[in-house]
């Protein structure tokens, strides 16, 4: 499954490819689990209809525009108030071309406030596609439980993800400074070498 990263302006010239856009919303989180384990950060993903984790978003037409298409999908899937929390070109993070599949995936990252995360979560259950394409937004555990060093992110990473959503999650965590490169490598190692 070869894929290559391309700049946004190059990708929109690929008119013979199918394009999809997905978005990661995240916010700082001061909460402490059981009153002592820092939650660190809130990162939203969704449980898809197919049982895989992914980001909200979907197929877009180049004619409607990448971000306009993404905002349409976000409204359908999570009832996002796109006038206030809509994705813009400035939120673009990475585009990857999958030549064998004639497919281009665009990934966006948007930092919001903890209050806005709650607004997004509340609205999501009223979305048109809630209970259909989207089985609900979930918060990704970005911490690792000190008790067994597997609970939290390592265990979460052993789930099944759609497309390259798992790689996008890891990239987002590092790029946004949510976790360090070393912390991510440690979680990946624990995810594959320890019992869950
Ligand atoms: P339909 O209305 O059924 O067409 O769904 P949709 O428009 O919401 O499309 P979907 O979200 O399933 O995304 C379209 C394609 O992008 C999927 O077939 C996957 O291959 C891929 N995809 C889905 N979610 C993600 C994601 O989070 N990241 C990446 N990189 N690809 C994804
Ligand atoms: Mn309890
Ligand atoms: Mn979708
Ligand atoms: Mn959709
Ligand atoms: Mn769609
Ligand atoms: Mn649809």
UniProtKB/TrEMBL annotation:
Give its localization.
Nucleus, Nucleolus; Nucleus, Nucleoplasm
Q: Name one Pfam family in it.
A: Nudt16-like
Co-factor requirement:
Co(2+)
Under catalytic activity, the entry for this protein gives: a 5'-end (N(7)-methyl 5'-triphosphoguanosine)-ribonucleoside in mRNA + H2O = N(7)-methyl-GDP + a 5'-end phospho-ribonucleoside in mRNA + 2 H(+); dIDP + H2O = dIMP + phosphate + H(+); IDP + H2O = IMP + phosphate + H(+)
Entry EC number(s): 3.6.1.64
Locate the transmembrane regions by residue number: none
Q: Which InterPro entries match?
A: NUDIX_hydrolase-like_dom_sf, NUDIX_hydrolase_CS, NUDIX_hydrolase_dom, NudT16
Q: Where is the signal peptide?
A: none
A single GO BP term for this record reads: sno(s)RNA catabolic process
CC per GO annotation: nucleolus; nucleoplasm
Organism, as annotated: Branchiostoma belcheri
Keywords (alphabetical) are:
Hydrolase, Nucleotide metabolism, Nucleus, RNA-binding
Q: Which residues form a coiled coil?
A: none
- What name appears for this protein in its UniProt entry? U8 snoRNA-decapping enzyme
Span of domain Nudix hydrolase: 16-162
Main localization, broad class:
nucleus
């Amino acid at each position: 499954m070869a894929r290559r990263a391309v700049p946004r302006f190059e990708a929109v010239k690929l008119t013979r490819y199918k394009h999809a856009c997905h978005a990661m919303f995240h916010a700082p989180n001061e909460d402490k689990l059981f009153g002592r384990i820092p939650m660190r950060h809130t990162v939203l993903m969704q449980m898809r209809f197919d049982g895989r984790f992914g980001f909200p978003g979907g197929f877009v037409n180049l004619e409607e525009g990448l971000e306009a298409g993404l905002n349409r999908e976000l409204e359908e899937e999570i009832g996002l108030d796109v006038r206030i929390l809509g994705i813009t070109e400035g939120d673009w993070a990475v585009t990857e071309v999958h030549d064998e599949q004639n497919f281009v995936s665009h990934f966006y990252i948007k930092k919001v406030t903890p209050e806005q995360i709650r607004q997004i979560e509340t609205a999501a259950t009223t979305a048109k596609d809630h209970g259909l394409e989207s089985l609900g937004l979930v918060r990704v555990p970005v911490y690792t439980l000190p008790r067994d060093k597997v609970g939290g992110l390592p265990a979460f990473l052993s789930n099944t993800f759609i497309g390259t959503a798992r790689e996008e999650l890891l990239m987002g965590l590092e790029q946004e400074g949510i976790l360090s490169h070393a912390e991510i490598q440690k979680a990946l190692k624990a995810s594959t070498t320890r019992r869950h």
